[in-house]
């Protein structure tokens, strides 16, 4: 306990306040709460990484309708999984979800290893906090969580200095989370900690007046709620540029190619990309001689967490194509296939002809 800041309350008092608030004000009707199987909790927890509850609900319900259990998800093609993920962003989560389902089937006989925190955390895309959330909420067994909401709550309550992503700061927060976590009502306690961070102890505008810990919160006593948690040291986002080829045939279909399984938009379908117009023209000369370039569209910027990508759409009409090649596909915007599309590509395809993929915009 040497890394732990001074506690604001004994564990029992902390739990009593939190659960009393949760019983009256917590969220009790989220779709993954009924039923709380390891599979349903796992899918919801992965979707909720980096994404708000209101956005996740629609995706979760649609995902469950298609993949009601881990066996159906493991048996699916990655394309179909990523199609249902389109719009949620952070597509590595979708790829890892698919990989983890296959590991559960192949290595664990179709049952999630909820008896072991280490085995749960070793599944692709899970990690220590998500594993704890799955175990606690699906079994009621004691497991500790430290997601973004919980970090924010604990950091403000104790005015923990430093960016929570630093190992030393994160160790202190884990110690606090361990200290306050009870042996009973783990399902409610885990949900309550997440709900407190999501609904009251919000990132920009905390609602301190309704918080059950207003009188003991160190950051609130100092009037420094917005200073905690400290932000990650900022670096200027680098910029990159790319040209996306909108190559259409006589039927109006658009040529797509599948991205490599790793890296940017891994496993998704995208438009062919080029560093410059010379490279694009050389590709057309080799693959689609006689194709006609049309005026380029206005460039736009797509922002990732670690860089900005300036995209210039370059439409072209094909006369003939010598070979489509592997991992390429003629996509009909008027009859869209169930494949995973990179968000800006989806937007460009939607601009060609009126149609919808029944998903919301990427957060």
From TrEMBL:
Q: Does the keyword Cytoplasm apply?
A: no
Q: Does the keyword Iron apply?
A: yes
The record ties this protein, via InterPro entries, to:
A/G_AdeGlyc_MutY (IPR005760), DNA_glycosylase (IPR011257), HhH-GPD_domain (IPR003265), HhH_base_excis_C (IPR023170), MIG/MutY (IPR044298), MutY_C (IPR029119), NUDIX_hydrolase-like_dom_sf (IPR015797)
Q: How is the cofactor bound?
A: Binds 1 [4Fe-4S] cluster.
- Give GO terms: molecular function aspect only: 4 iron, 4 sulfur cluster binding; 8-oxo-7,8-dihydroguanine DNA N-glycosylase activity; adenine/guanine mispair binding; metal ion binding; oxidized purine DNA binding; purine-specific mismatch base pair DNA N-glycosylase activity
Q: Which cofactor does it need?
A: [4Fe-4S] cluster
Q: In this entry, which stretches build a coiled coil? A: none
Q: Which CDD domains match?
A: ENDO3c, NUDIX_DNA_Glycosylase_C-MutY
Keywords on record: 4Fe-4S, DNA damage, DNA repair, Glycosidase, Hydrolase, Iron, Iron-sulfur, Metal-binding
HhH-GPD domain ranges (all copies): 47-199
**Enzyme kind, highest EC tier:** hydrolase
- EC number(s) per UniProt? 3.2.2.31
Which reaction is this enzyme known to catalyze? Answer: Hydrolyzes free adenine bases from 7,8-dihydro-8-oxoguanine:adenine mismatched double-stranded DNA, leaving an apurinic site
Q: Which SUPFAM superfamilies match?
A: DNA-glycosylase (SSF48150), Nudix (SSF55811)
Task: Name the GO terms of the biological process aspect.
Answer: base-excision repair; mismatch repair
Top-level taxon in the UniProt lineage? Bacteria
Q: What is this protein for, i.e. what is its function?
A: Adenine glycosylase active on G-A mispairs. MutY also corrects error-prone DNA synthesis past GO lesions which are due to the oxidatively damaged form of guanine: 7,8-dihydro-8-oxoguanine (8-oxo-dGTP).
Alphabetical list of NCBIfam families matching this protein: mutY, PRK10880.1
Similarity field = Belongs to the Nth/MutY family.
PANTHER family for the chain: ADENINE DNA GLYCOSYLASE
Q: What is this protein called?
A: Adenine DNA glycosylase
- Species source reads Halomonas daqiaonensis
Taxonomic lineage from the root: Bacteria, Pseudomonadati, Pseudomonadota, Gammaproteobacteria, Oceanospirillales
């Amino acid at each position: 306990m040497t890394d732990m800041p001074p506690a604001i309350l004994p564990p029992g008092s902390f739990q009593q306040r939190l659960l009393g608030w949760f019983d009256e004000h917590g969220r009790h009707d989220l779709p993954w709460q009924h039923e709380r199987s390891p599979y349903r909790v796992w899918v919801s927890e992965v979707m909720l990484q980096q994404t708000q509850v209101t956005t996740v609900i629609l995706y979760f319900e649609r995902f469950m309708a298609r993949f009601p259990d881990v066996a159906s998800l493991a048996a699916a093609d990655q394309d179909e999984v990523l199609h249902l993920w389109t719009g949620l962003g952070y597509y590595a989560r979708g790829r890892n979800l698919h990989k983890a389902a296959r590991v559960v089937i192949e290595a664990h006989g179709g049952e999630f290893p909820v008896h072991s925190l280490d085995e749960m955390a070793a599944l692709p895309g899970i990690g220590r906090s998500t594993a704890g959330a799955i175990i606690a909420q699906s079994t009621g067994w004691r497991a500790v969580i430290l997601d973004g909401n919980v970090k924010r709550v604990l950091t403000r309550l104790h005015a923990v200095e430093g960016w929570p992503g630093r190992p030393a700061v994160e160790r202190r927060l884990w110690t606090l989370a361990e200290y306050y976590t009870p042996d009973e009502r783990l399902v409610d306690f885990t949900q309550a900690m997440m709900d407190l961070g999501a609904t009251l102890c919000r990132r920009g505008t905390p609602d301190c007046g309704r918080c059950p810990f207003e009188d003991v919160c160190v950051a609130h006593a100092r009037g420094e709620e917005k200073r905690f948690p400290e932000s990650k040291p900022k670096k200027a986002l680098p910029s990159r540029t790319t040209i996306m080829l909108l190559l259409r045939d006589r039927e109006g279909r658009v040529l797509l190619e599948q991205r490599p399984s790793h890296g940017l938009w891994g496993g998704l379908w995208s438009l062919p990309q080029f560093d410059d117009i010379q490279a694009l023209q050389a590709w057309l000369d080799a693959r689609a001689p006689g194709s006609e370039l049309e005026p380029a569209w206005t460039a736009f910027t797509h922002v990732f967490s670690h860089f900005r990508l300036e995209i210039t759409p370059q439409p072209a009409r094909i006369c003939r194509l010598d070979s489509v090649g592997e991992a390429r596909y003629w996509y009909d915007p008027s009859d869209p296939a169930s494949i995973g599309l990179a968000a800006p590509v989806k937007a460009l395809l939607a601009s060609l002809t009126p149609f919808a993929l029944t998903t919301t915009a990427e957060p």
